[in-house]
Amino acid sequence: MSATKFNGFEKYFIQTALKHAIEEAEKDVLAAEADGKRSIYAPGYFTMVGNEIIKKVNHMTLKKDQD
């Protein structure tokens, strides 16, 4: 199997899913804090990590389909 880059649709699909997952994870962290529970993740952690993954996906996308 050869390594290929993502096309524009694949990039869009992956990045959209990541953004949704980031939003949900951040909501969960804030909800836990609001309930007085301690999360092992700080607010903003998933945003930071998710944005790095989004950059990596963009880097692994065909040049013509990059932002």
Q: Could you explain the architecture of this structure?
A:
The model has no long low-confidence stretch (mean pLDDT 92). The two termini are 27 Å apart. This protein has one domain. The protein has helices spanning 8-34, 45-59. The protein is built from two helices and no strands.
What is the CA-CA span between the terminal residues? 27 Å
What's the helix-strand series?
HH
Taking pLDDT < 50 over at least 5 consecutive residues as the criterion, the unreliable ranges are none
Helix content: 55-70%
Radius of gyration, Cα only, in angstroms? 15 Å
Classification by helices and strands: mainly alpha
Query: Total helix count?
Result: 2
Annotation, overall tally of beta strands: 0
- What is the 3D form? elongated
Strand content: under 5%
Largest sheet: none
What is the domain total for the residues? 1
Q: What is the residue-averaged pLDDT?
A: 92
In short:
With 67 residues, this protein is mainly alpha-helical. The protein has helices spanning 8-34, 45-59.
Q: Characteristics of this structure?
A:
single chain, 67 residues, elongated, 2 helices, mainly alpha
Describe the secondary structure blueprint for this structure.
Blueprint: H1 8-34, H2 45-59
Helix pairs in contact: 1-2
